[in-house]
Amino acid sequence: MPTIGIDLGTTNSCVATYRNGRVEIIANDRGNRVTPSYVSFNDEERLVGEAAKDEATSNCENTLCEIKRLIGRTYDDPIVQSDMQLWGFDVINDDNKPKIPVVYTNKRMIFCPEQISAIVLEEMKITAEAFLDETVTDAVITVPAYFNDAQRKATRDAGKIAGLNVIGMINEPTAAAVAYGLDRQSKEERNVLIFDLGGGTFDVTIVKITDRQFYVKATGGDTHLGGEDFDNKLVNHFIEELKQQHNKDISKNKKAINRLRLACEDAKRKLSSSTKAKVQVDALHDGIDFRSNITRARFEDINHGYFKRILETVKKTLKDSGLIKEDIDEVVLVGGSTRVPKIREMLEKFFDYMELKKTINPDEAVAHGAAAYAEFISNNNDHNLKDFVLEDVTPLSIGIEILGRDMQVVIPRNTKTPTRRWHDVRTAHPEQTEMGVRIFEGERALTKDNHFLGEFTLSGIPVAPRGQGEADICLDINSSGVLHVFAVEKITGKSSELKIDMGKGRLLPNEIKRMIREAEVFRTNDEELKKRSKAMNLLEDLAYNIKEKIGKSKTSKLKSESMMGQVTEMLRWLDINQKEPVEMSVLDKKKEELEKICDQLSKN
Ligand code: ADP
Ligand code: MG
């Protein structure tokens, strides 16, 4: 059974598989090797990828993008609150979980981010199945190295909803390092810095690579920094310009913002090769045809703060790895935003004008590495993956709250994974038979400044003097970077192992089951629609074919006029019903009618 690697990006997704000793990147049905992470709903159908992105301006309320920015986050997260302002679609609050309402086949439907990501993942699965001509279920999905536990679990849930068996998750820069290392085929030990700047996230990972062995030394990043932020800065710049020049505030006009954003992204890309770009949007707002320019220098100035943050993260990660910049042998660029000249310039300067490696494709490297990793963990003993070793690290420290406020770190950041650490907790009062345990992730000293992961109560602790009631808490992080927590009560030696579901805000197992069923219904609907549309096309082809034949046939004038009348009627019917999903049984009948004419023609 084949396995696939999926790079589920904020902006673009990519799928790859490992066949005959090498990785193949799989093109989608439009022949493109990356697919925009867009999903769009309309009166008739659900669209994914390029087809969905094409609807971004005409149907912006129901065209969803950048959903990865919502995944694993709560509604009140300031990042969610600010991103929402710039999206053409709505985000609503459902018990502090962000949800997205859309209108699909004239019905209002509400989706959670996992469901939308699942639609993108499913599209990648379908792309792979079409290429491999067989069913694919086992997949490795990539996540930004700096994704926290909730974001990883939500991504895995999205995979399940998409009908995938997620055999592993791999950090995006680590996957890129694997692609780079396998491609380079050198036995020499090198310290490689992977710099991954995409649409929504930024990761920097330092990996020691020796032949096919990959040891991550340290990782750092920002789950909310990427090309889309540069676009947003440009949008805000032009909103201000519009205020000053036309005295108009377009900030509440979602459609206008969406159109301006597409124009800004376009201009930003142009600025990677030119020093000046035009931004033009016809009938942007109140009849204004917006026309403006932006220079590369201005773009760099507007985004100066982000560029600075990026370099600081590189420095911090280097420090965490225990290396100095002179120890770095190679810097590898991954992600679409590494095409920004200022970013390259900044990195080159920092690394004393070392040549940056552009030998791997920045858009495909992550999926490439994920496919190799999928092959490796699915136990196929491929010769090229012999001696493959991959050791990653945790991006964030994980700890337990003590004294109701302090963070007691149990697993420090950049600890090798998988890892399992025990931590004993004691009762604070005599007679205490219950103990609450709260778990957090983050680097701050006080838990209130860190990210709350979950809590549980250990009950039934035997009465013991203060400080003698004791339990062992086990924090276990698997190779996908996902945390599980266990507790063992020690006094009675019962050693009962509790598995605690830390999934606050996460989907419950029965919700996932329901969503899997819903996704199947969607899939069936989509397939049915595709089948009908194909049948309609065939019918139309047939009608035109017959029309041509009638013209050439030697049948009597009366007969051919009657046949021509029937065919013209059929074409009109097809035209009228072009937008309505016609039942297959009706289409079959229509086909029979045409076939009868065909028979008559062949008899003459
Ligand atoms: P993700 O992995 O987050 O989906 P990608 O690695 O595909 O993202 O990168 C997408 C980002 O790269 C977008 O913000 C896009 O605007 C940006 N990008 C692509 N090409 C260029 C370019 N030539 N110059 C600047 N930015 C670019
Ligand atoms: Mg990416």
What does this structure look like?
- This protein is 37% helix and 27% strand.
- With 604 residues, it is of the alpha+beta class.
- The protein folds into four domains: 3-225 and 306-391, ATPase, nucleotide binding domain (Nucleotidyltransferase, domain 5, 2-Layer Sandwich); 227-305, Actin, Chain A, domain 4 (Alpha-Beta Complex); 394-498, Substrate Binding Domain Of DNAk, Chain A, domain 1; 514-603, Substrate Binding Domain Of Dnak, Chain:A, Domain 2.
- Strands 1, 2, 3, 4, 11 and 12 form a six-stranded mixed beta sheet that branches.
- Helix 5 packs across helix 11 and helix 12 runs antiparallel to helix 13.
- The longest helix is centred in the last third of the chain and has 44 residues, at 509-552.
- The mean pLDDT is 91.
- Bound molecules: adenosine-5'-diphosphate and magnesium ion (MG).
Ligand set: adenosine-5'-diphosphate, magnesium ion
- Termini separation comes to 53 Å
Instruction: Give the count of helical stretches.
Output: 14
Strand content is: 25-35%
Task: Tag the structure with descriptive keywords.
6-stranded mixed β-sheet; 28 strands; 27% strand; alpha+beta; binds magnesium ion; 604 residues; binds adenosine-5'-diphosphate; 4 domains; Substrate Binding Domain Of DNAk, Chain A, domain 1; Nucleotidyltransferase, domain 5; Actin, Chain A, domain 4
Question: TL;DR?
Answer:
The chain has 604 residues and is an alpha+beta fold. A hairpin with a 4-residue loop joins strand 5 and strand 6.
